[in-house]
Amino acid sequence: MNAFWPVELSEGPIGLRPIRIRDRRDWQQVSARNRDWLRRWEATVPPPAPGKPSGPRPTYRQMVSFLRAEAREGRMLPFVVTYQDELVGQLTVGGITWGSMCSANIGYWVDEAVAGHGIIPTALALAVDHCFRTLGLHRIEVCIRPENGPSRRVVEKLGFREEGLRPRYLHIDGGWRDHLVFALTADEVPEGMLRRWRGVRQHLEH
């Protein structure tokens, strides 16, 4: 394991912890229950080139093994999102790049049953603070389909900047889809993202 992984982060009943092989049943149950809710936003694999066979869909164990290997190499932080110690989603810090860039991207999903309760904004704030303050990254990027209003509201609440459109950027739900780019640099949140989110949440509640 590298010096920054594994790690567990929490704020009240909301937590981030490494995904585990033994999460299989809970992860599959949450994923199955939310299949229709998540399908429009889930990454898919484009069709193979003509004459080439399509590869088999990875099993849960294969997925977790890949994510853990990437984490050991410092290229990814594969978290599950928990609420009151129950698995309710997933958040992955990916594409970690060092050198002159020091950046990463973050993707996330959450159980529809708990959406809108501040779980993902809190989880994202925890991850951003870890990336900036512990890992020493400079920039975090979140790419979201323009139609995904709930996900856009997450980054807008946290003060991410909208930087523009990337046409046909990722293969999602069976096709190449446009994505809006939202980004933030460490110097834009000197107070820390979690502290900023606490202030925003307090304002929203009043």
Detailed description of the structure:
The chain is α+β, with helices and mostly antiparallel strands. Helix content is 33%, strand content 31%. β5, α4 and β6 form a beta-alpha-beta unit. The chain is globular and about 50 Å long. The chain starts with 8 loop residues before the first strand and ends with a helix.
Q: Report Rg.
A: 17 Å
Structural class: alpha+beta
Order of helices and strands: EEHHHEEEHEHEEH
CATH superfamily: Gcn5-related N-acetyltransferase (GNAT)
CATH topology: Aminopeptidase
| Average pLDDT taken over every residue | 93
Task: Give the tally of structural domains.
Answer: 1
For the largest beta-sheet, the strand count, sense and barrel status come to:
8 strands, mixed
Strand content: 25-35%
| Strand numbers in spatial order across the main sheet | 1-2-3-4-5-6-8-7
Which regions have little confidence, pLDDT < 50, spanning 5+ residues? Answer: none
Question: What is the helix fraction of residues, given as a range?
Answer: 25-40%
Distance between the termini: 43 Å
* CATH level 1 name: Alpha Beta
CATH architecture: 3-Layer(aba) Sandwich
Number of helices: 6
Number of strands: 8
User: What is the 3D shape?
Assistant: globular
